[in-house]
Amino acid sequence: MAEQYPILVLLVLLFGALLVGLSGMADRRVCFPLTVTALGLAVAVSIGILQRVMDGGVIRYFVGGWSRPVGIGIELRIDTINALVLLTVTTVGLLTAIFSFRRVRDDKTEKTPLFYVLYLLLIMGLSGMVITGDAFNLYVLLEVSSLTSYALIAMGKSKRAATAAFSYIIMGTIGASFYLLGVGYLYLRTGTLNMMEIHQAILALDGPSSTIVVAFVLIIVGLMIKMAFFPLFGWLPNAYSYCPSSTSCVVAPLMTKVGVYVMVRMMLTVFGTEWVFSNLQYTQWLVGMAVVAILAGSVMALAQVELKKMFCYLIVAEVGYMVGGAWMANHWGMVGTIYHIMGDAFMTLCMFLAAGIFLKQAGVVRIDQLDGMFRKMPWTMAGFVVGALAMIGIPPTCGFFSKLYLIRGGMESGHWFYVGALLISSLVNAVLFFRIFEIAYFGKNPAEGHAAHHEEPSVQPVIKEAHPSSLIPLYLTAAIILLLGLFNGQIVELIEHSLNGVQVIGTEILVEKGGQG
Amino acid sequence: MSVMGSFIISQYVLDHFNFWVAVILMMIGLYAMITKNNLIKKLIGMSIFQTAIILFYVSAGVKEGATIPILEHHAAETEQVAAGDAGAEHGSVVGADHDVSKSSEKAPAHEVHEINPDDYSNPLPHVLMLTAIVVGVATLGVALAVAQVIYKNYGTLEEDEILAKIKAAENDG
After folding, report:
1. A153/B170: higher pLDDT
2. Neighbours of B24 (CB within 10 A)
3. Considering Cα of A138, then A140, then A145, then A150, what sign does the dihedral take?
4. CATH architecture of B1-62+122-173
5. Is A482 contained in some domain?
6. Alpha carbon of A39 to those of A91, A151, A210, A254, A258: distances in Å?
7. Which of A27, A485, B52, B87 could join A398 in a cystine, given CB atoms 3.0 to 4.6 angstroms apart?
8. What is the pLDDT of residue A512?
C-alpha cells in the first residue's frame, strides 16, 4: 500500500471528483462531505509520502509498472522538496474546501456539484504537477489545472468575472504553449521526456547547444506567464479579484506558487543548476527583473483601494521574491525560495480567507469599509492579523524566516539591489497593513467618532461574526503560519537534504562567477 | 553575394522547412491573439497557435521512407514491441541505435526480420499530439463558453465596446 502512495494521492482526488459529479446530480448535499473526505485522504497520503521520503530518500514510482529503460512510462518522482510542496497544495485545498461550506451553497446553488468537481480536478492537476517526473505529463497537468481554474474564475457573480477569465485563458494558453514548444525542443535534442534522463542527456552533451538554450528560454518564459512574473502579470489582478471567494482562496495561493515550483524543478532537476548558472549568464538579468517586479508590485499594491486587488499586487511582488531568490545562484537563495513557496501559500490563503469573510459578513470590498472591524468581528481580525504580520515579516511567523534566508542569499551573492528591494517591499507591506489596522481599530476618522455612533444601531445587527466553518480554516492557516515559522530549522534541513542530493549550488559557482564578472 | 545568399537559404530555410512553417503559423496566431479586437478572432488565433505547435511535433516525428510504426504480427512479441518503440523514439533523434538491434538479435531465431528503427516513423510525438489536440479542444470549448457569457453580459464581442461598457458601469457605481 505504501508503495502506491504517489499515485494514490492523485487517484483519491480524481475518483473523488467523479463521485462528487455523479452523486451530486442526485443530491447536492453530499458534495461537501465527499469533497472534504477526498481532500482529507489526499492530505493524509501526502503526510505518508513525506514520512517515506524522510525515511527512505527519493521515491521513484512508475505509473502502471512501465519502468523506464524499456517502456515509455510516466515516472512520478518525489524528493523532500516535492513532498513538502505536495503537502502544502493538498492542505490549502482542504482548508479552502472547509471554508467553501456555506459560500458555495449561497453563491450558486444549482452549480454546487460542478464547483466541487472542478475544485477537486484543480487540486489534482496541481498535485500532479508537483510530483510528476515527466516533462510532457507536466504540460498535461498544467492544462488540467489551468482549464479548471478558468472555469472556476468565470463562475464569479460579477459581470467582469467572465472578461477576466477570458484574458486569463488567452495569456494562460500562450504560456502553456510556450512550455510545450520548449519541451518539444528538449525532446528533439535529447530524445526523451523523462526529467532525469533529459538531465543526463544535457550533461552528456559536449559543448553548448543552442537548441537546449532555446528550449530553456521558451519553458521559463511560458512558466513566467503562468506565475505572473512582473511584465507578464496583467491577467492576474482581475482574474483573482472578480472570482468567487472560495475560488480565489484556492487559486491565488496555489497557481503562482506551483508555477514557481515548476521553474525551480526545471532549474534543479531538468537542466541542472550547473548548466543554468554557469552556461547561461542570465543571473544578473533575472535578479534585476525580480527587483523590478518586487518594487512594481509593492507600489501598485499601495495604489489600490480594493482589498482583494491589493492582495493580488502583493502576490506579484512575492513572485518577484521567489524568482529573484531562485536565480541568485546561491544556496540560501534557493532554500529561501522553496521555503517561501510554502510560507507564501499559507500567507496568501490567510489574506484571501479573511477577505472572503469580510466580503460575506460585512460586504467589504474597499479598504476604507473595514472601519471598526476589530470591534465588529474581533475573531476574524485576530486571524487576519497573524497573516498580515507574516506578510510584513514579524519574527515568529514564516514570513520573517523566508525573508531572512532570501536576504542572506542576496548578501552572500552580492545582489544588493535585491536585498534593498526586499526591505523596501517589507516596509511597504508594513505601511499597507498598519493602515488597515488603523482603519479597523480606530475607524476611518477617529475625530468624527460621534457621527459614527449614531448610525451604529442600524449597522451593528447586520454585521455578525463569521460562521465557524469560515473561522476554523482561518485559524488553522494562522496556526500553520506560526508553526512553519517555529519549525523553520527542520523544514530548511529537509529542503537542504534534497538540494544536496540534486546538485551543488552556491559557493563554488559563485567563486567562478565572481572571477568572471 | 548570390552564392552566400543561396547558401543561407539552403542552410536556414530549406533544411528547416518544417520549422519555418510552424514558426510562421505560430506568429500569425500570436498576432491575432494579441491585436484582434473581436474575441472570436482572438480564439481563432489561439487555435492557429496551438495547431502550429502540433505541426511542429508531428513533423519532427516524420522520417523519409519510413512506414507507420506497427510491427508485423508474427514478429511482434510483447518485449520486442516495447524495444522497437523505444528504439524508434531514439532512432530519429540520436541516430545510433545499437541496443535495439542487439535485442532483436537475441530474439528467437524463427522471427524473420531484424527490426530496423529507420523503417518506422517515430510514434511518440504523434501520440503526444493526440493529447495536445484534446487539450486544445478543451481550451477552445471553455473559451467559447466564456465568450458566450461575455456576450450575454455585454451584448457584444468587440473588446473596445466591452471595455467602454465596463468603464461606464464603473463610473455609474
Report:
1. A153
2. 11
3. positive
4. Orthogonal Bundle (1.10)
5. yes
6. 8, 20, 44, 15, 18
7. A485
8. 42
Q: How many domains is chain A partitioned into structurally?
A: 1
d(CA A430, CA A304) in angstroms, rounded, equals: 15
CB A233, CB A292: distance < 8 Å:
no
Looking at chain A from residue 327 to 386, which residues have their Cβ under 8 Å from any Cβ of chain B? none
Q: List, for residues A182-239, the tens digit of each pLDDT value.
A: 999 998 888 888 888 888 888 888 767 888 888 999 999 999 998 888 888 888 888 8
- Residue percentage of chain B with pLDDT more than 90: 27
The answer to whether the Cβ–Cβ distance between B39 and A166 falls below 8 Å is yes
Using a CB–CB cutoff of 8 Å, tell me whether A472 touches chain B: no
Enter the C-alpha cell of residue A111: 452549480
Q: Kindly report, as residue ranges, where domains of CATH 1.10.287.3510 are found in chain B.
A: 1-62+122-173
pLDDT score for A210 = 83
Mean pLDDT of A367-388: 84
Do A150 and B86 make contact, defined as CB atoms within 8 angstroms? no
Cβ-based neighbours of A190, under 8 Å, separated by 6 or more: A197, A198, A201, A202, B93
Residue B132, min C-alpha distance to chain A (Å): 8
With vertex at residue A464, the alpha carbon angle to CA A461 and CA A469, rounded to the nearest 5 degrees, is 155
Q: Min CA distance, B108 vs chain A (Å)? A: 19
Q: Of A368, A341, A189, A318, whose CA–CA distance to A268 is shortest?
A: A341
Is B60 close to A187, i.e. CB distance below 8 A?
Answer: yes
Q: Is residue A214 part of a domain?
A: no
Strand partners of residue B47: none
Assess A276–B contact: CB distance below 8 Å, yes or no. no
Instruction: Copy the grid coordinates of residue A302.
Output: 499601495
Q: Which residues, listed in sequence order, are joined to residue A132 by a DSSP beta bridge?
A: A76
* Tens-digit pLDDT profile for residues A295-322: 999 999 988 888 888 999 999 999 999 9
To the nearest whole angstrom, how far is the Cα of B143 from the nearest Cα of chain A? 7
ipTM tops 0.90: no
DSSP state of A356: H
- How far apart (Å, rounded) are the C-alpha atoms in residues A164 and A150? 9
> Which DSSP string do the residues of B15-73 spell out, in sequence order?
TTHHHHHHHHHHHHHHHHHHH-SBHHHHHHHHHHHHHHHHHHHHHHT--TT-B-S---G
Contacts of A193 in chain B (CB under 8 A): 124, 128
Q: Looking at residue A173, what is its pLDDT?
A: 92
User: What's the domain range around A424?
Assistant: 282-517
Is the CB of residue A181 less than 8 Å away from at least one CB of chain B? yes
Cβ contact B50–A173 (<8 Å)? yes
- The residue in chain A having the minimum alpha-carbon distance to the alpha carbon of residue B33 is A170
Q: What is the pLDDT of residue B86?
A: 46
Residues 6 or more apart in contact with residue A258 via CB below 8 angstroms? A85, A89, A126, A129, A130, A145
Å between B53 CA and nearest CA of chain A: 6
> Given a cut of 60, is residue A474 above it in pLDDT?
yes
Q: Identify whether A253 is part of a domain.
A: no
Nearest to A339 by CA among A282, A266, A418, A260: A260
Give A125: exposed, middle or buried? Use CB within 10 Å, 0-12, 13-18, 19+: buried
Confidence of residue A445 (pLDDT cuts 50, 70, 90): low
Domain membership of residue A339 (yes or no) is yes
